[in-house]
């Protein structure tokens, strides 16, 4: 023991590069919060050790000899659920695709692979922080179905006349977004602004990956862009995504809100000005980002949806919104897309702002 308040976090490293494996081992051994259980080169060896060692968290490479990190994640989440942090090279497309699919299969977060030793302070801190935080997340066997029960027969307020949707998530967000976006029809009538907490270097790859999971066009948001119906606009790394006064996209490098940039609260607060023209959706995630902004939206007449505890990987963000009165309704993940489609079918059409009308795909 090290004199810390609790036991050290027990870490299993899975990495085939001897250089990167050495760096990760050094980072873990030099941090008094951690205990290194083992560092292995293959997914097959990891699968053998996980049920014996029972690590608190796994650092998982994605491009491994033999079985890759995606299949290893699937197997671990099915057989011996354990928090997994993907350590990936953000500059290579194959690694990015595997990383994003691993997140959908149950991994909790992704961080950039260190280039060598010594690691810069920010990079080392990012890896250590993710390993420590994710070790605290209680995981269960990866669910293939979310809330497979009839959609609640709850209609939106009569004054609701939506023209755009904002969505936000943190831990568990990629798989939640993929599930929702994959269930929305190509005819979905409103633009969607999306905030996902994710490390530097991964947002462009995340947007490209999400574009393959849905019939809606997905891309990183651009400053001043006029939103188009049925398009999804993803907040870039280290920029707040907000709604401009003429319903255009605004990106800002203003200081982080609650430690987050992009911030869900910044997005939702900017959407509050359109009142009943806005729908906000707050999904799984640690912390409380988005809760205050969602409350602002609801108070202004917008319609706000939070993910139910039963399907949230981490119920921190949606739970915080519920506690302060920011949620119009709480729904399991599997019910959110059908509910949005039902709202779209029932809502009275609202003329788009100047510049939005007639700008379909």
Automatic annotation (TrEMBL):
Subcellular location: Cytoplasm
Keywords in alphabetical order: Chemotaxis, Cytoplasm, Hydrolase, Phosphoprotein
Residues recorded with modification 4-aspartylphosphate: 61
Domain CheB-type methylesterase, residue spans: 158-347
GO biological process, alphabetically ordered: chemotaxis
Lineage: Bacteria, Pseudomonadati, Pseudomonadota, Alphaproteobacteria, Acetobacterales
Stated name of the protein: Protein-glutamate methylesterase/protein-glutamine glutaminase
Keyword Transit peptide: no
Posttranslational mods: Phosphorylated by CheA. Phosphorylation of the N-terminal regulatory domain activates the methylesterase activity.
Organism field: Gluconacetobacter aggeris
Family per record: Belongs to the CheB family.
Known catalytic reactions: L-glutaminyl-[protein] + H2O = L-glutamyl-[protein] + NH4(+); [protein]-L-glutamate 5-O-methyl ester + H2O = L-glutamyl-[protein] + methanol + H(+)
Listed EC numbers: 3.1.1.61, 3.5.1.44
Top-level taxon in the UniProt lineage: Bacteria
Catalytic residues in the record: 170, 197, 289
Transmembrane segments: none
GO molecular function, one term: phosphorelay response regulator activity
InterPro entries: CheB-like, CheB_C, CheY-like_superfamily, Sig_transdc_resp-reg_Me-estase, Sig_transdc_resp-reg_receiver
Functional summary from the UniProt entry: Involved in chemotaxis. Part of a chemotaxis signal transduction system that modulates chemotaxis in response to various stimuli. Catalyzes the demethylation of specific methylglutamate residues introduced into the chemoreceptors (methyl-accepting chemotaxis proteins or MCP) by CheR. Also mediates the irreversible deamidation of specific glutamine residues to glutamic acid.
Chief place where the protein resides: cytoplasm
Domain Response regulatory: from-to ranges: 10-128
């Amino acid at each position: 023991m090290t004199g810390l308040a609790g036991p050290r976090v027990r870490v299993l490293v899975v990495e085939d590069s001897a250089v990167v494996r050495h760096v990760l081992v050094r980072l873990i051994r030099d941090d008094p919060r951690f205990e290194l259980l083992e560092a292995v080169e293959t997914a097959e060896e990891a699968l053998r050790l996980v049920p014996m060692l029972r690590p608190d968290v796994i650092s998982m490479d994605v491009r491994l000899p033999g079985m890759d990190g995606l299949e290893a994640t699937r197997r671990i989440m099915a057989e011996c659920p354990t928090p997994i942090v993907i350590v990936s090279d953000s500059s290579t497309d194959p690694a990015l695709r595997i990383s994003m699919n691993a997140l959908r299969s149950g991994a909790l977060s992704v961080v950039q692979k260190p280039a060598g030793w010594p690691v810069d302070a920010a990079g080392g801190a990012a890896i250590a922080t993710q390993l420590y935080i994710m070790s605290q997340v209680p995981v269960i066997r990866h669910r293939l179905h979310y809330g497979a029960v009839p959609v609640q027969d709850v209609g939106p307020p009569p004054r609701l006349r939506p023209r755009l949707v904002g969505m936000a998530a943190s831990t568990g967000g990629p798989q939640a977004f993929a599930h929702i976006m994959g269930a929305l029809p190509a005819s979905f009538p409103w633009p969607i602004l999306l905030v996902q907490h994710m490390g530097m270097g991964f947002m462009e790859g995340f947007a490209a990956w999400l574009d393959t999971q849905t019939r809606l066009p997905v891309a990183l948001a651009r400053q001043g862009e006029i939103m188009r119906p049925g398009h999804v606009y993803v907040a870039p790394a280290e920029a707040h995504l907000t709604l401009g006064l003429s319903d255009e996209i605004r990106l800002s490098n203003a200081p982080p809100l609650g430690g987050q940039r992009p911030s869900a609260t910044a997005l939702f607060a900017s959407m509050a000005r359109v009142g009943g023209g806005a729908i906000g959706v707050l999904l799984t995630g640690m912390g409380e980002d988005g809760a205050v902004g969602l409350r602002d939206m609801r108070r202004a007449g917008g319609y706000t949806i939070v993910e139910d505890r039963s399907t949230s990987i981490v119920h921190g963000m949606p739970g915080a919104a519920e506690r302060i009165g920011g949620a119009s309704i709480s729904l399991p993940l599997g019910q959110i897309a059908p509910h949005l489609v039902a709202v779209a079918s029932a809502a009275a059409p609202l003329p788009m702002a100047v510049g939005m009308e007639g700008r379909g795909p």
